[in-house]
Here is the input.
Amino acid sequence: MSDSAPLTTDQPGQVASATPPAPGRSRRLSDRGLAVAFTSPALLLLLAMSVFPLLWALYLSFTDYSATRGGPAQFVGFGNYTAILASEQVHLRALTTLVYVVGAVTLQTVLGFAIAYLISRRTRGRGLLTTLFLVPMMLSPVVVGLFWRFMLDAQFGVVNSMLGSIGLGQVEWLTGQRTALISLILVDTWQWTPFIMLIALAGLTAVPRYLYEAASIDRASEWFRFRTITLPLVWPLLLIAVLFRAIEAFRLFDLVYILTSGGPGVSTETLSFHVYKVAFLGFNTGTASAYGILMILVVIILTQLYLRYLNKLKED
Amino acid sequence: MAVSVDEAVSTRPARDRGSPARRFGGRGRSALEVTLLTVLAAVMLFPVLWMIETSIKENRDVYAIPAKFFDFKVTMDHYKDVFVASGSGRSTLSAAFLNSVVVAGASTALATVLGVPAAWAYSRFAMKAKKDQLFFILSTRFMPPVVVVIPIFLMYRQVGLIDSKLGLILIYAAFNVPFTIWMMKGFVDEVPAEYEDAAMLDGYTRLQAFWRYTLPLLLPGIAATAVFALIFSWNEFVFAIFLTSSDSVRTAPPAIAGLIGGTTVDWGLVAAASVVFALPVLVFAYLVRKHLVAGVTLGAVRR
Here is the structure.
């Protein structure tokens, strides 16, 4: 563009305003080129590292390929899929996952919202409180898993030690059939309650003050204000947070791996952990791929839901 | 939403019963709320404090029953063990930390270089099915890592990227690019496109306008985004444990997790390693606290 008037590059403004149509056209052309040049490297990386592997997994899911046996893979049609959908083992894992996701996300939501509500009512020390509450969320699941494993140890764990000192019995946190799943839910809740809290707090502080003032002039009760002002205004944002957490909880692997390794027995084996066992301990790559594709379908449905609410939130 | 609020305010005369409840409130309630918050904060922070405490305890005190909260001997031995091997020289853990720095740093740089221009392009230009493209990009970030790692493992085995830092860098970059694009698009949207239009009226090309005017304004946003990408890569565990095996490549999370593999576990060392591992994350997170909501929702929610 500036090339068209090489003599006046020192005062390019005059040139551009003197000949508006020409730069306009060439700009639109170069814009398209720029858009392609700027977006395609990122898209290529995603194609190579996300889309292509998933397509490969899709292909493998129709075969009996095994990563260790090698040799040519036999095409087995929907055999892997029907085997997985009919498997009792998978049903059990699906139930475990459901209990875990619903339990953890519900607890996090209630606690996180409660904390956010309490913080939002304080006038002083808000920043400090928020920062302190956010610490667990920033830790790696590895650190969280390891540390809770230490604290929940039945013999020398500090949790049982504290329970003992107030006269309560010892709990087999990670080794009991029932308690292990509860422990998993509790640890996940400990780590991710801050997430819900953070987003709920963002929603709560965005509620216009004059609404509360109007309500209090009208002598509306606390509960009434909460129900008709706070909740409706925060709910859309909270829903986003809940869906986000649900997706994350559904695909969670590392915490299970570190904290309980699926045990005792299979009592804390979630779907992602089971996929790992099928793929990397059983080396039934074909079956594991079909399993993974089915999980991805669930994630895609949840993601669609999430994105739809997100869209709605942005449009409001 | 606005409608429901209007209703809420206008239906109020029928609900005057609330006033006694309000009078009951006041100071007593405020004290109750403060107490509740304190208790909750204590519960949330106790594990972190306990971890720090364990990392400076002598082994005898670490396994004491009942647990020792205050009267223990302070030692820095565990921290020494994190960095120095039992004989002499560097420990495997410190090598793992170094690998983590390299992998997290390089993958963040790659994701930033690829993601920022893309975010700018998505923000500024009309494109075919732009919304669909953006949603597709975000949804790749939601794929379960355990599932993605199966074909990635086979693919890497084929091309010789198994157990290599480059392999980890590539997959982390691929997981951070969607985040970078979404997060940065928000920042680019905040910079008025008119700046570039004005620069172009002055004779600059679109690219020059981006480079000279928009990019400098984006720098704080780029820094915040890069910090989040850095934290994600630093904390990542699933790909690290399945795609690497040798000590010279392994990053810190699998190395720390490997500490509990044996029959006896040195929990003091685990605690010290965890503290060393978590400290930079907390510092970085504190630096970007203003953007935390956007960061942890992958740039989807902005306030």
Remarks:
- The two ends of chain A are 40 Å apart (CA to CA).
- Chain A has two domains: 2-52, 80-315.
- Residues 1-25 of chain A have pLDDT under 50 and may be disordered.
